[in-house]
C-alpha cells in the first residue's frame, strides 16, 4: 500500500475502508504523506479526524470504586449478617429455611432503589410487601402440608417479581425496562456462578489446609464464612452487572444461540423416546411433574433466547429455532394440561393439582401470545418488539399467581 494507491481510490469509500481494514498500520503511514500534500481535501479531513480523534471529555471508564460502591459494600455486609442470623434460627427449627431468601432479596432491592432514585410511593409499597411476606410466612405453621410447601415454593417467585419492580423503578410500565431486567437475570446468573465457583475452590483449599494441622473447621467455616460470603456475593454480583461488565454481556447472546438448538434437539429425541417406551403422564404422577419441569425449562430457554435476539429485526435461523421451541412447549403444555384435568376429575382437587393447573394455564396462554406475535414477525407484519412485549408484559401475571398460591392456599386448604 502506497500514497499513489490511496490517491487513486480517494473517491471510492468502500475501497478506502477495505484498504484500512486490510492493513491499518500501512494505511496510516501512507495517509500521513497524502494528507500533507492535500490538506484541503474534505474526504481526507474526515479520515484524518477518524484516525487521530481524541475524546475531549473524560474517557475513563467508571471505576468499580465510584458511584454506589460504598452503598453496595454496606448492603453486602448487612445481607451477610442478616443471612447468618436467619440461619441460626433455621438451625433451631424455629423458622422455615425459605426465610433465608429475606437475607438477600430485600438488600438487592435496596440497591436497585438506590441506583434508580425510585419514587417514595414505590419504595413504601415494596417495603410493605417485603414485610407482609416475611410476617405472613412465619405465621404459617411449620408442617409438611402440601399447601404450606406450595407457599414456600411460590414465595421466591413472588420475591423475584418484587425485585423486578425495584429494578424497573419509576419505569415499571415500560417494556424496555422489563426486558432489561430479564437480561440482567441471565448476566447475573453467569457472573454469580463464576464467582461462586472461585469461592468454592478457595473454601475447599482453606479447609484442606486446616486439616493438615489437625483442625476440622467445616461446620464453623460453612456457618460463618461460606454463608456470609454467599449472601454478600449476591449484592456484589448485582453491583458488578449494573456496572456494565463486558464479561457477562458478551457471553449471554452466545449462550442463547448455542443452547436453543441443543435444547430443541434434545427434547425432540426425549419425547420420541417417551413415546417409544410408553410413559404415561396421565397415570404416572412423578412423570407428570418431570413433564412440567421440562416445560418450565423450555419456557425459560425460549424467553432468554428472545430477549437476546438482535434488534435489527432481520430474521435468522435462531428465530425458526425459537418457533420450534415454542411449538414443542405448547405440545408439552397441552399434554400436561390434559393430564392434570384428568387427575382432577378422577382423584379430586388438591393444592398441588390446583397450583400446577394454574401454572400450566398461564404458561399455555403466554406461549400462544408469543407464538402469534412470532408468526406475525416471520410474515413481516410486526417487529421483534411485539414478541418481546409478549414476554415482558406477561411477567406480572406470574407474580400474581405466585402471590395467590403463597397467601391464599394455606388459608383455603388448611
UniProtKB/TrEMBL annotation:
The keyword Metal-binding does not apply. Keywords: Membrane, Transmembrane, Transmembrane helix. The chain crosses the membrane at residues 69-89, 95-114, 121-139, 151-169, 190-214, 220-242, 254-277, 289-308, 320-342, 354-375, 395-413. This is Uncharacterized protein DUF4153. It comes from Falsibacillus pallidus.
